[in-house]
Amino acid sequence: MLQLENNDNSHFIQMNDQRSTTDKLAHNCSHIIQMKESSKIIKRISILEIICDTFSIRGVARMRRGPPFLRGLWFCFVLIMTVGLLLTTYLLVQDYLVYDVSVNIHVDLDAKSPFPALTICHHHPFSQNAYHLWRHGDVMSPSVFNKHMRNLTHKFLMENDVDAAETLYQYDSLSIYYQNIKTIDAYRLGHDTTAFLNCMRRVNQTMQIEDNCMHMDGFQIRKFSHHIYFNCHTFEPKTKIEAYDTDTIALIVSLGTDPNYNNQEQAFLVDLFEMARGLR
């Protein structure tokens, strides 16, 4: 009997030892699980802190400091501003892709504007001096130029070179004649400032009248050469103040002598329907 009791006691002791071991393992496992969960929480908190500390956006750093009410207020502020930024960027890109054109129109009534530059050219480019130069042979006349063109055209026709002859026929023009004389001769053939017989300039309530336009106050005359009109003249204000002070300018311009198509000017068949008298 004693032997049996000892066996039962030993079996009971072994059972207690096994239960204590199981409890220890369960306790250790739960402790390990709690440590893992706490480490995850620590990682989450550290990432949030890094975001709040490193972002340069105003208000992000305040979302983890202070009372809960202020943190919530800053969170709403940052959220609203972020949504507004994204929405504004979207609308801006959408507006750019539409390619709209904005035109601002401003109407200023009775605004005083500066007097512009005035350029005058003669439709008939040759002055009286041109006929004198042609008669004395100082400058090749249009008739002589036309004779050269006709002789060359006849030469090419005799050689059965129709294309060259047709091209030379098109060369019988005022522009080609201009290109075949010297620059100084082109200035000598054209009109000069003596073609302006009288100039009048009104400034406020004052009228200035000059027989020689070169002496007109506030304006200067520039001459330039043109391949069709030869000499053109530009009246332009000397200063911006003179341009604003000038109200009107009146010019009396001579059209020159009548063209002499019987002698020196018997040429320019291509320009026949463009010849005119007057000013441009």
TrEMBL record:
<dbReference type="GO" id="GO:0005886">
    <property type="term" value="C:plasma membrane"/>
</dbReference>
<keyword id="KW-0915">Sodium</keyword>
<keyword id="KW-0407">Ion channel</keyword>
<keyword id="KW-0739">Sodium transport</keyword>
<dbReference type="GO" id="GO:0015280">
    <property type="term" value="F:ligand-gated sodium channel activity"/>
</dbReference>
<keyword id="KW-0894">Sodium channel</keyword>
<dbReference type="InterPro" id="IPR001873">
    <property type="entry name" value="ENaC"/>
</dbReference>
<comment type="similarity">
    <text>Belongs to the amiloride-sensitive sodium channel (TC 1.A.6) family.</text>
</comment>
<dbReference type="Pfam" id="PF00858">
    <property type="entry name" value="ASC"/>
</dbReference>
<keyword id="KW-0812">Transmembrane</keyword>
<keyword id="KW-1133">Transmembrane helix</keyword>
<keyword id="KW-0406">Ion transport</keyword>
<keyword id="KW-0813">Transport</keyword>
<protein>
    <submittedName>
        <fullName>Uncharacterized protein</fullName>
    </submittedName>
</protein>
<keyword id="KW-0472">Membrane</keyword>
